Amino acid sequence: MSTITIALVQMNSGMEAEANLAEIELRAAEAREAGARYVLTPEMSIVFAENREGLRERARAWENNPAITRLAEVARANQLYLHIGSLAIALEDGRFANRSVLFDPHGEVVATYDKIHLFDADLPGINAYRESATYAGGDRAVVVDTDHFKLGFSICYDMRFAGLYRALAQAGAQVIAVPAAFTVPTGEAHWHVLLRARAIETGCFVLAAAQGGHHANGRSTYGHSLVVAPWGEVIAEAKGDLPGLVVANLDLDAVAAARQRVPALANWREFSLAELPGQGNLR
Known about the structure:
Elements: E1 3-10, H1 17-33, E2 38-40, H2 52-58, H3 66-78, E3 81-90, E4 96-103, E5 109-114, E6 120-121, E7 129-130, E8 143-145, E9 150-152, H4 162-170, E10 175-177, H5 184-202, E11 205-208, E12 212-214, E13 220-222, E14 226-228, E15 234-237, E16 244-251, H6 253-261, H7 264-267
Parallel strand pairs: 1-2, 2-3, 9-10, 10-11
Antiparallel strand pairs: 1-16, 3-4, 4-5, 6-7, 8-9, 11-14, 12-13, 14-15
């Protein structure tokens, strides 16, 4: 079957896991009623805390994690692939993994991915922001076979690194997930253009489930969860930042069609970089 129905959950996650888990459970049931076979939630779906102190109080280790147990049951009860965009996992060194988790329709964990690219920056007018002080970056890109398509993993800030997406597509990904919690200013400036670019470059469907609205941790996020087709057109979008469900049908034949029309993946070549001396003033 070349066409598959998927759903994105747009959330306004708070700092308490119980309310966020209940929201996911509700939306998964709605998605199943709409015919979806795959459901994606945003980055930091389970606990959206702003700093290490908030995470230390609420985030749990991977083993015997009660959220994982409950989400497995949600996937099993609704007979669908449930892709938790990410949750914070407590690590032994006191930091956290920003981890994406895919459950199959039997409730089994079939793949995990730890966010590779971390936002470390010196921002004008405010203190330096060091995501690496709280999170440990991953070092492994992930592509997994589902019953419906080959799925590539990424999380939020990863979308600014085109090389990751090319690697996922070259490994066979037809669909790439981009769960996110984009700020409002960067969302207004870059959200649509970056996601459309990643779809066009790879010839993949790009699925971006987003956080939206003002959160209990004090942050505001952009929303506008969207689905981008391999040719770059937005085929479904949440209009604004309110919580809800975005449902779309993916025609997987469009992946091969886009790559045939513009065979950029096949035409890629390795190259060296020549650093030439300056030529002085031109006269």
